[in-house]
Task: inverse folding
């Protein structure tokens, strides 16, 4: 199994390291041809607007959009969640739009308001969760399953083959959310 990590910007190395820790091959994805043969793709934390700008320049955005439409499993963390969301409540653009949620960007405040907490996730137990200018889910479609919450807001959601977290499982060394994603990629064996 090979899992791609979108590598135009953001915490790419941390995701690759987490994949390595659970014995899964990770591949940085910088160009459209890097998508060939992947079993899933991770969209990292970072800056969604910067990632989008860099991806559209190289044609990677269009190729990835196509791959997602044909069912490539995807896992977005923080900025990655924003890239996957159907709607961004406080931003004029949307990006891939393959996950039926509306997110508010920067809903946990500024960089200095970053915090680490613990969230209880259905089926996974209690997880350490780092929130850095995190998006929070303000609406979720009926097909979306919420697996963990911060107060009223879902912070770990799944819809079909798409998984997204408001927080950064790649920064805490706890591989359980990545393991869940790998399980989703296996189930979808194509
Ligand atoms: N606020 C960032 C964005 O809008 C996301 C922050 C993060 O990924 N830590 O893309």
Result:
């Amino acid at each position: 199994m090979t899992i791609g990590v979108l590598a135009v910007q953001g915490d790419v190395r941390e995701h690759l390291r987490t994949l390595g820790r659970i014995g899964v091959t990770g591949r940085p994805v910088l160009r459209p041809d890097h998508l060939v043969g992947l079993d899933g793709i991770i969209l990292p934390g970072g800056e969604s607007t910067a990632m989008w700008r860099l991806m559209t320049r190289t044609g990677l955005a269009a190729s990835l959009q196509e791959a997602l439409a044909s069912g490539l499993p995807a896992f977005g963390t923080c900025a990655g969640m924003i890239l996957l969301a159907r709607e961004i409540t406080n931003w004029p653009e949307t990006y891939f739009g393959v996950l039926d949620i509306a997110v508010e960007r920067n809903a946990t405040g500024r960089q200095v308001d970053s915090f680490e907490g613990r969230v209880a996730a259905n089926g996974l137990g209690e997880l350490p969760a780092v929130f850095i200018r995190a998006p929070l889910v303000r609406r979720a479609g009926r097909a979306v399953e919420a697996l963990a919450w911060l107060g009223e807001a879902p912070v770990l959601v799944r819809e079909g083959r798409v998984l997204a977290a408001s927080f950064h499982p790649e920064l805490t060394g706890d591989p359980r959310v990545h393991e869940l994603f790998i399980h989703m990629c296996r189930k979808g064996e194509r």
